[in-house]
Specification:
Length: about 400
């Protein structure tokens, strides 16, 4: 543990030094350019020199941005390498022959399942796109049609701002594909094939059902996906904050330790007298709008189960997703038993946590979530804009106008 910490420190120190050095260089160049600009302003013949200098400045600025991004990429690489090594060690231990049990405290079961072998032939077109967008075999994936174009716009702008380059939008119609193209957003044009039974469950739910089917294509190609609805804002690079040790790592609809991570909910039946209290396990659902899914057999089986049920039942995809994740085997049913992790509910925040807790608590001054999902409120677009003002533009009163919940009529 200590070794790891030291490595982290020296890497941070190195990055601080190189950033500072870069800033100093950029600053001196900026001063030079400004002086040149002033001079040329009074001396129009020099206009071309100035424009060349401005080009140079722009180039340097973009180089600095690249450096900063590379730094984050390095950190992601380091973290992933450590996580993969730990997982490989555990897999090797548990996949071996039948073993004797070690002493108490040394026994660990396998929760990081091995990855499937990629099958490029499954979808060569997507394989080609992904090899460019996600060289590290993981990416953010959003799915949208042109109806939600304005939200898509703030969604990918937030990803760009957070320094994320490995993301992709599955474009369900030509208009949104064109919109992506003109904004340099990586996209994959794909037609929506919505199961007949889901057709009148409303546009949103229909797309949600489709996403499990679509995700399979990514997993088959060997990619891990951070699936993201487009009513989500990113403020930090999410890949620095994943554990990658489970089949599914998901944000929660919960709003405190109990509801997000699970608790013993005691039910009371007084007529039972001595045995009136029955203990139940309870957890607020995994939010199917933001989850990281690794290309493993249990993950793919999950997607297939959800897709298959949504093609036959008129159901809410998030409910089906959770049932398949949490139900154990019982008569007539074989449980999935995928390994699960709940994301930190402050880092991967839902809008109930944001509007009922975080914005009112001075302890959160200066806190920056990794991602924020406007899932608890219907006025999504307005709240997303306000949240950008709050977190990015430092407007501390940007959220004042919004009530905790929605005014239900
Ligand atoms: C919630 O759990 C975290 C650890 O997961 C702990 O650090 C924190 O103190 C807990 N908060 C409360 C209010 O119990």
């Amino acid at each position: 543990m200590r070794k790891r910490g030291d490595g982290g420190w020296s890497q941070r120190a190195g990055s601080v030094l190189s950033t500072r050095y870069g800033l100093e260089v950029a600053f001196s160049i900026l001063v030079g350019v400004l002086m040149g600009a002033l001079w040329s302003f009074f001396n129009p013949r020099c206009y071309t020199t100035t424009s060349i200098a401005l080009d140079k400045l722009q180039h340097l600025n973009s180089e600095l941005t690249t450096l900063r991004e590379e730094n984050i990429e390095l950190k992601v690489h380091l973290k992933r390498a450590e996580q993969e090594r730990d997982a490989a060690l555990k897999q090797r231990e548990s996949l071996g022959l039948v073993k004797k049990v070690g002493p108490v405290g040394t026994v660990k079961s396998l929760r990081t399942q091995p990855l499937v072998q990629p099958n490029e032939d499954a979808n060569p077109k997507l394989a080609e796109i992904l090899s460019k967008v996600a060289p590290d075999k993981e990416l953010v994936v959003g799915i949208a049609n042109n109806n939600v174009r304005s939200m898509v716009n703030i969604w990918f702008s937030s990803l760009k701002r957070a320094g994320v380059s490995n993301y992709l939008l599955v474009a369900l119609d030509d208009q949104i594909a064109h919109f992506c193209k003109s904004n340099q957003v990586p996209f994959y044009r794909r037609d929506a094939t919505i199961a007949a039974i889901q057709k009148d469950t409303g546009d949103n739910h229909a797309i949600s059902g489709l996403k499990f089917h679509l995700l399979r294509e990514f997993l088959e190609l060997g990619y891990s996906v951070l699936l993201s609805d487009v009513d989500i804002l990113f403020f930090q690079n999410p890949f620095l904050h994943l554990y990658r040790d489970c089949d599914v790592e998901s944000m929660s609809d919960g709003y405190n330790n109990q509801t997000a991570y699970g608790y013993d909910d005691v039910s009371d039946d007084p007529k039972m007298g001595w045995a009136r209290y029955a203990h139940t396990m309870r957890i607020w659902v995994f939010n199917s709008g933001l989850f990281y899914i690794r290309p493993t057999i249990p993950s793919i089986e999950l997607l297939d189960r959800v897709t298959s049920r949504l093609s036959k039942e008129k159901a809410w995809d998030q409910a089906v997703f959770n049932e398949e994740l949490f139900r154990p085997s019982h008569p007539g049913y074989e449980g999935l038993h995928a390994s699960l992790r709940v994301m930190d509910y402050y880092l991967f925040m839902n809008s109930k946590v944001m509007f009922t807790i975080v914005r009112k608590d001075a302890n959160f001054d200066g806190f920056l979530p990794v991602a924020l999902h406007v899932n608890y409120h219907p006025d999504k677009y307005e709240r997303m804009l306000a949240l950008i003002n709050y977190f990015v533009n430092g407007k501390k009163d940007a959220l004042k106008a919004f009530p905790d919940g929605s005014e239900w009529r």
